[in-house]
Each structure stands twice: as structure tokens, then as C-alpha cells.
Amino acid sequence: MALTITCPVCGKRNGYEFKYGGEEKGPRPEEKDLNPQAWCEYVHMNKCVAGVQEEWWFHKDGCGSWFTILRDTTTNLEQEKKEAKK
Amino acid sequence: MKDIKRVSPVVLKSTPVKTENRNNWEIVMGYKGEGDGPYLIDLTHKQRFDYQDSNLGGQKPFNINIPEIPGNSVLDKKILMNRMNNTQASIYNFGKEDIAMPEDSGFTDVTEATLFVALVGKNIFSICEKLTSLDFLNPEKKAPFLFQGPFSHVPCQIVTLSKNLENHGLVLTCSRGYGRDMIHAILDAGKEFGLKPAGEERFNHFVSEL
Question: With an 8 Å Cβ cutoff, is B95 touching chain A?
């Protein structure tokens, strides 16, 4: 199934122009009181949602932007997202 | 002390009939049997700068306003200004004379780090269609405009200068190391359309008519 991704700078492009950057997991945890287990969970553990998830992409063959999109992992189709249009 | 010699990564097999030496570049102004187009023109000797600033909108390098929207370009006084993203712009000097790079640390001279060629004449967009999925004839885009994307699988900056049927033209830049293979791919794709190498004079004439 062909994946298209909407880059906030270049617009809708072929998915092959992009590199996947992982699930969006929120801000990096505060270093104060951070234990190895919490850090390990933040870095390595994923939700692997069967459905719509927010994820990071890098436009490697284009403008070089990092941005997030919503993608339905069951259909491999991008979903509308207000933030992606900024 | 001997002068330095600046060499383009582009090697074309045609026979030059007129050359010029400018700023230590040996520039071919015209080739034998150029025909009536389309043309592939090596412009690697033309100056190019990258400009980076967190407040790009407020800057006016070379007295030219940087376009506000990424992907837009403006051609003024033979200087092409392309907005790449929120913080970066690329600048191409189409003039014969070099311009002094501003002292601002946000400027980088990338002339010798990149390949720079022009495709001018009929059917150039048909040639491009064989090498990229980018839509140069998108009616929503008004020339000049910038595309950043893969061309022959290589990340490039491509500026469409004219979509006018009588006067098609675009310029393309990518990392210098891809030079030889990029030229090979373009000439191979352009074979069926009669694409031939041409000298700088063709490009100067094309720009003067924009």
C-alpha cells in the first residue's frame, strides 16, 4: 500500500522520501529522580497501536524537517491533523 | 605563485567552440552543434550561498526581500532567492560578475560544494517526469518556485524558472559528489527528446528573457 505523507514545508509527498522517527512519546523525562528503568521504558518501550498513532517523520530527501503526523497503522493511511499543517 | 584551478564536476562530451576564464573557472560559452534544444547547461561556476537565520523574515540580503512562504522564490537583479524552510534560504547569482558574500556568519558559500545545472527548452518537463515524481507543472505554483526533493533518487533543490510553453526552464542543484551520475541520468533520459549540452550563453539569453 502506497504511503503518502504531508510535510509541513513541502506538502504531500511519496512516503519513500521520509524516514520514520518512532512513536511520539511526549517530552523527555526530567533528569531529576530519573531511574534507569523509567529511562529504559521511555527510550525502548512502544505502544505499537493497531489503529491511529502519532509518530515522528524526517523529510530526508526534501527539506530536512522533523514533524509528527497521525497514521492509521492498519490501513497505512495518514489522518488529518491540525498541527501537521503548521 | 600559481593561480588555483576551479573544476566543475560536470564532464560533457561535446566539443566547446567558445570558452572564457572567469575567477579561475574555465567556462564553456558554446558547444559545437547545440541544435535547437532542449539544452543541458553546466552552471557550477555560478555563485551560490546558503543563508540561515532564526529571524529570516526580517532580513534583506543583497537588498532583496526573502519570500515569506517556504517553497517560494524571487528573481531580482539576476539573483534568485529561495525560501527553503522557516530558518534557511538559498541564493543563486545568475550574473556574470561575482558578488561579495556578506560578512554575517549566517552565510555559507556552497559554490564548490554543489553541482548546478540548468535544463532549458522544449520538453524539459517530459525529461524530468522520467526522473522524478515532482510536479513542475502544478497549476497552483507560480514560477519561480522551489522544490526540495528527489531527482533521480538524489536529494536536490530544483527551481522552476519558467513554465511558459515558449521558454521552459529550471535549475537544479545537488551535492557535488553526485555530479557525474546525475549528468549521465539526465542525458540518458533526454536522449529521446534530443537533449544536448549547451554553453552558458544559452542560459544568459534565457534569463534575460524572463
Answer: no
Taking the Cβ of residue B175 and every Cβ of chain A, the question of whether any pair is shorter than 8 Å is answered with no
Task: Report the distance separating Cα A69 and Cα B146, nearest Å.
Answer: 23
ipTM of the complex: 0.80
| B146 contacts B84 by C-beta, under 8 angstroms | yes
Answering whether pTM is above 0.90, one says no
What would the pLDDT profile of B14-30 be if each residue is shown by its tens digit? 899 999 999 889 999 99
Residue A70: domain span: 4-85
**Residue B73 in contact with residue B82, Cβ under 8 Å?**
yes
The domains located in chain B, with CATH, are 1-210 (3.30.1360.120)
Q: Does B133 touch chain A (CB under 8 A)?
A: yes
- A63: closest CA of chain B, how far (Å): 6
B147/A65 touch (CB, cutoff 8 Å), yes or no? no
